[in-house]
Write a structure and sequence with these properties.
- The complex is a heterotrimer of chains A (363), B (323) and C (420).
- With 363 residues, chain A is of the alpha+beta class.
- Chain A is 24% helix and 35% strand.
- Chain A folds into two domains: 4-233, Rossmann fold (3-Layer(aba) Sandwich); 240-355, Beta Barrel (OB fold (Dihydrolipoamide Acetyltransferase, E2P)), CATH 2.40.50.140.
- In chain A, strands 6-7-8-3-9-10 form a six-stranded mixed beta sheet, sandwiched between helices. In chain A, strands 13-12-11-14-20 form a five-stranded antiparallel beta sheet.
- In chain A, a hairpin with a 2-residue loop joins strand 4 (57-62) and strand 5.
- The two termini of chain A are 39 Å apart.
- Chain C has two domains: 27-141 and 300-357, Periplasmic binding protein-like II (D-Maltodextrin-Binding Protein, domain 2); 143-287 and 386-417, Periplasmic binding protein-like II (D-Maltodextrin-Binding Protein, domain 2, 3-Layer(aba) Sandwich).
- Chain C contains 19 helices and eleven strands.
- In chain C, helix 2 (39-56) links the parallel strand 1 and strand 2 (60-65).
- Classes of the chains: A alpha+beta (363), B mainly alpha (323), C alpha/beta (420).
- Chains in contact: A-B, B-C.
- The structure holds adenosine-5'-diphosphate (ADP) and magnesium ion.
- The site of adenosine-5'-diphosphate has 11 residues of chain A, from strand 2 and helix 1.
Chain lengths: 363, 323, 420
């Protein structure tokens, strides 16, 4: 069990609004990732759930029980900290068993439970060591172990992988996911790393400026960003934006900017009709710029290559389309040179448009 | 940019260097140089000046002092060697034996009070409250005032005629008659301890406060989530994290307390009936009062075994500690 | 080395040597004394170098230090063989460092026969092993200070005997007037004064006149101890048991002590502020009371000692002679309120008033702690280590019976004196 519900949750630090009107339901056994730039209120949300901060407004429920006034230790929630927060003077065993010891669990049961968990995490031979005698990854595991041992209703993770090097981060990501599948515990995971969010989350909650922007599965958030911020924040390199005007010809709607004109497939153009003749923000992801096409055809335009950035699997091309800068992501097997002129085609199904004033997605 | 760019200008000097054969840069090492290359040799060599200085600055006076305690040295006169005579004399001296006891009581009680109150004070000042910085500065005052001055102020407060302490206690109905704070062994020793604690507590508070501020906040939070109440947070997070500072502070506190002179000299001068002497005041009485330098230094010297035991015990404990 | 170089080196060496000799010769005579709180007297002291230079052509430099620093200076100067040529010492200070002091009998001997000779106490602390090792400098008497108005109120004259003092003390207490109070805490000045004045008066002698026998355990000692305890119980404030040397001054000035033995500093101090104007008029002096064994008291004799290391012994002796001149002694005393000359005969040249009269008379009865033994380190040590004071404190506070406290002290004194 472990259904976590946040209702109109808010938190102010003096004049600083850290979290505002957060409504969110984390289902039992679900892995939800809070994603957003630094300072957007992710950690605060997490700490509100854990009970480390007092709620300013709204409610928190766990399996129907209101948690607002419940002490952290009685919430039956475990948390893994960014810096692990291991007790430096306690052995790994004592670190992991501490919560059970405080709950007066008999010694033999503590030993049994800690061993069990250590086994799962592969740290059984570290039991007598002190935190400072462990590597970063090992500490991370101990911190996880300390949370798991308690068998809580929910896990909270606050950027748990951000202190690890890149290799280890990828490895731990996979392990964490496996672990989650094994334990099937409700988890709320905070990160500012979208790759982590995309790969790990059952659902992603994108936050900006204390407010939830969008909640959805990774693919929903990626494909149908609700606003320009989400669109830009998710995906790497980020989505291209350019000012454009909505045009209409032969019953087809188009987005026309400096040096390009993109028709939109009628299937997706629902909201755009009312914008005809008005300015919008055109958006297209770098991978949706397809190489090739004959100049003069619909959705095709010419570009000058400004910079070639090979990243291994792909090549990022910084383009100049008659003054509009765009980034394209193309196959690494091709070769380009700076200054070269090439043509691109925009997939009409993958074009985005955003309201200039509100940033809300129209398309 | 591709590759590492060549330096655009090659000066005459660099040209020369480039043309010179490699051996010219690193001539073969002579026998002395080769020895110096070895870290253990070079290491000792490099600490040698400091060690020498230590020996000269600390060791020499120390040995000189040891030697003096074995003489029946009086002021301005060459002393004769009498071996452990001074120590034997001291041991048969009742005042000295009292002094040993006083010093131990004084030091132990003082240091324990300083640790307890110092830690309490630090914990309070570590909380967020208004004018926190003001209090943090203010608390240092007793430590800054020269100890003779503050001892004189306390003497005034303990005064039977003008003393504010007795008066206040009477005003609040806590006592009926004035207490003669410096008149009897037990009370006088307590009064001295109070002043000593008052005076050096700022050092404890400030040091421990600094230590408290280095305790990672997330450890408290982890403990809170793990289910620790305030008391077990203190035992399991606060205390272990500040343990080293606490030990060092206690160590210094012990040394300072044990060798405190001004407060006792001003408040009781060792009285009544020589019952409140500590090593330093008794040493003063022997050396400057009676002019018996050898015996006076012997008194101070008996402080060393006690100090050594304490220091080594503490350091030993600290070294064994894995964290 | 070439000849030229050799000559240059020799020349420089010679020059330096000559310079050093001249430097020593040119250095002034150095004198260290305590600062005197009385402004006029301090000014007078500061004019001395000029007068001395005029009289003798010798340069003199006076350094003033706090009186509580004198002892430390004495010990360090003696031990390190460096410091002033002449240093002021009080009481028995010279004895402690006697080996480091130069014999000044040559000048002090003749002075001891002039103007009626020195007060007796000067021998106790300055005439050591048959030589003058300290030259008398100035006298500070300790007298009985009393409130004229309070004594009048209870119809009493100042006490002549200790029993008078006790009677007056009891009356003062009963009348709720400022009481009689004598310091009994731990200090080398006032508390020691209290117990020595009383114990001597009742016949206590710590040691025989030749210093060869501890004579503490006597009927006189017992009587004195009993008197002190009685006075503490019946007349003195309880707090005197922790009074050092300043408390009786402070309480007298605050109108809370009506009678106490002290140097004339209370009288002087009361003249310095308006708020004490009334008190000033009412301070009276009388002699320290006498007991069955006579009138005895302590005073604060001040000496100048000349260190053996001094390179200016001749000049220093000149200065001793200079300071002993009647004009200097009387001139300083006139300005200094609590200082009087060292020679008995100069008393007649002091201002003629009841205060100077008592100060001069009182000095006739004064001894230095350690009396009646000859000047000895042991006598000085007993004073500095509070053996007698502790004896009294234990008995007064009841931690020991009269027999126990005497017995213990006898044991201590035997050890210190090294005699039976
Ligand atoms: N204890 C605090 N006191 C004051 N402001 C805080 C506190 N904690 C967080 N904030 C502010 O609240 C906002 C959200 O912080 P946080 O939740 O830590 O962001 P994130 O985890 O998304 O980086 C930030 O502006 C931060 O400065
Ligand atoms: Mg954060």
């Amino acid at each position: 069990m472990g259904e976590l519900v946040l209702e109109k949750l808010g938190k102010n630090f003096g004049n600083v609004v850290a979290v505002k009107d957060v409504d969110l339901t984390v289902h039992d056994q679900e892995f939800v990732v809070l994603l957003g730039p630094s300072g957007c209120g992710k950690s605060t949300t997490l700490r509100l759930i854990a009970g480390l901060e007092e709620v300013t407004a709204g409610d928190i429920f766990m399996d129907g029980r209101r948690l607002n006034d419940v002490l952290p230790r009685d919430r039956d929630i475990a948390m893994v900290f960014q810096n692990y927060a291991l007790y430096p003077h306690k052995t790994v065993f004592a670190n992991m068993g501490f919560a059970l010891k405080l709950r007066r669990v008999p010694k033999d049961q503590i030993v049994k439970r800690v061993k069990e968990v250590a086994n799962i995490l592969g740290i059984d031979d570290l039991m007598e060591r002190f935190p400072k005698e462990l590597s970063g990854g090992q500490r991370q595991r101990v911190a996880l172990g300390r949370a798991i041992v308690r068998n809580p209703r929910a896990f909270l993770f606050d950027e748990p992988l951000s202190n690890l090097d890149a290799m280890l981060r990828v490895q731990m990501r996979v392990e964490l996911l496996k672990l989650h599948n094994q334990l099937n515990a409700t988890s709320v995971y905070v990160t500012h790393d979208q790759i982590e969010a995309m790969t790990m989350g059952d659902r992603i909650v994108v936050m900006l400026d204390a407010v939830i922007q969008q909640v959805g599965t990774p693919m929903e958030v990626y494909k149908k960003p609700i606003n320009q911020f989400v669109a830009g924040f998710i995906g790497s390199p980020s989505m291209n934006f350019a000012p454009a005007k909505v045009g209409s010809a032969d019953g087809k709607l188009s987005l026309e900017g400096q040096g390009f004109k993109a028709f939109v497939s009628s299937g997706c153009a629902n909201g755009l009709g009312s914008y005809v003749g008005r300015d919008v923000t055109f958006g297209v992801r770098p991978e949706d710029l397809e190489l090739g096409g004959d100049a003069g055809m619909d959705n095709t335009f010419e570009a000058k290559i400004e910079l070639v950035e090979p990243v291994g699997s792909d090549i990022f091309l910084e383009l100049d389309v008659s003054g509009t800068p765009l980034t394209a992501r193309v196959n690494a097997n091709l070769s380009f040179s700076e200054g070269e002129k090439i043509t691109f085609t925009v997939n009409p199904n993958r074009v985005h448009a955003f309201d200039v004033d509100t940033g809300i997605a129209i398309l | 940019m591709a590759g590492i760019a060549e330096p655009r200008e090659i000066t005459e000097q660099t040209k020369e260097l480039r043309q010179a054969p490699a051996e010219d840069h690193f001539p073969p090492l002579g026998p002395l140089a080769r020895r110096l290359e070895r870290p253990e040799v070079l290491g000792y060599l490099m600490v040698a000046p400091a060690l020498l200085l230590l020996i000269v600055l600390l060791g020499y006076p120390f040995i000189q002092a040891v030697w003096l305690t074995m003489l029946d040295k009086r002021v301005g006169v060459e002393g004769n060697f009498i071996g452990l005579g001074n120590y034997i004399d001291l041991w048969s001296d009742q005042v000295y034996r009292w002094t040993v006891m006083n010093t131990m009581i004084f030091t132990a009680v003082s240091v324990v009070c300083k640790v307890v109150f110092g830690l309490t004070g630090a914990l309070i000042l570590n909380q967020a409250f208004r004018m926190k910085n003001f209090f943090r500065g203010f608390i240092l005052l007793p430590w800054i005032i020269p100890s003779v001055l503050s001892a004189l102020v306390w003497l005034w407060m303990y005064d039977d005629t003008f003393g504010v302490i007795s008066r206040t206690l009477i005003a609040f109905g806590l006592i009926e008659e004035k207490i003669l704070w410096l008149s009897q062994w037990g009370i006088a020793l307590t009064s001295i301890i109070i002043v000593n604690v008052w005076r050096t507590m700022p050092f404890f508070i400030v040091s421990l406060l600094a230590a408290l501020q280095t305790v990672p906040k997330d450890q408290y939070e982890a403990a809170e989530i793990d289910g620790a109440n305030l008391l077990s947070q203190f035992w399991n997070v606060t205390l272990p994290n500040i343990k080293h500072v606490l030990i060092i502070v206690t160590l210094f506190g012990t040394i300072w307390t044990m060798s405190d002179f001004n407060i006792i000299f001003v408040l009781t001068s060792g009285g009544p009936a020589n019952s409140t002497h500590v090593f330093s005041t008794l040493a003063y009485q022997y050396a400057l009062g009676a002019g018996k330098l050898g015996e006076g230094i012997a008194v101070s010297f008996t402080m060393f075994p006690l100090l050594f035991v304490i220091i080594f015990y503490r350091l030993y404990r600290m070294r064994r500690d894995p964290t | 080395m070439s000849w030229k170089r050799f000559f240059t080196a020799t020349f420089i060496a010679f020059f330096m040597l000559a310079f050093a000799v001249v430097a020593v010769q040119a250095a002034p005579l150095r004198l260290t004394v305590r600062t005197v709180p009385v402004v006029a007297a301090q000014k007078f002291l500061k004019t001395i170098p000029k007068k001395f230079k005029k009289a003798t052509g010798i340069d003199l430099k006076i350094e003033f230090i706090a009186s509580r620093e004198l002892r430390r200076r004495l010990i360090t100067a003696a031990e390190t063989k460096s410091g002033p040529d002449l240093l002021m010492v009080v009481y028995n200070g010279a004895i402690t460092v006697k080996e480091s002091l130069a014999d000044v009998s040559e000048v002090v001997g003749p002075l001891s026969k002039e103007n009626g000779g020195f007060y007796n106490m000067y021998k106790d602390g300055g005439f050591i092993d048959g030589k003058w090792l300290a030259a008398p400098f100035m006298t500070t008497s300790q007298v009985m200070n009393y409130r004229k108005d309070h004594l009048k109120q209870i119809g009493e004259n100042p006490p002549d005997t200790w029993e008078d003092a006790l009677r007056i003390g009891k009356k003062l207490k009963k009348a709720k007037l400022a009481p009689w109070a004598e310091s009994l805490g731990t200090h080398v000045i006032d508390p020691s004064t209290t117990i020595l004045c009383i114990l001597w008066g009742y016949g206590m002698r710590q040691v025989s006149n030749d210093g060869k026998k501890i004579t503490l355990d006597s009927a006189g000692t017992r009587a004195g101890l009993r008197f002190i305890k009685k006075a503490y119980k019946e007349a003195w404030p309880k707090g005197v048991i922790q009074w050092k040397t300043l408390e009786n001054n402070q309480t007298f000035l605050a109108g809370k002590t009506g009678m106490t033995i002290n140097s004339p500093s209370i009288w002087w101090k009361s003249s310095t502020k308006k708020k004490w104007a009334n008190l000033y008029k009412n301070v009276g002096f009388s002699l320290v009371p006498k007991g069955p064994a006579g009138r005895h008291c302590t005073a604060i004799p001040q000496y100048l000692v000349l260190f053996k290391y001094s390179k200016k012994k001749k000049e220093a002796k000149e200065f001793i002679k200079f300071m002993a001149q009647a004009d200097m002694q009387v001139g300083f005393s006139k300005r200094a309120w609590m200082w009087t000359p060292t020679q008995k005969g100069l008393a007649s040249r002091l201002p003629q008033n009841e205060y100077y009269d008592i100060m001069a008379k009182q000095a006739l009865y004064a001894h230095v702690p350690g009396w009646p033994g000859p000047a000895s380190k042991a006598g000085s040590e007993v004073h500095q280590r509070f053996n007698l004071l502790a004896m009294v404190q234990r008995y007064v506070q009841g931690t020991q019976s009269i027999d126990e406290t005497i017995k213990q002290t006898v044991k201590e004194l035997r050890k210190i004196y090294g005699v039976n």
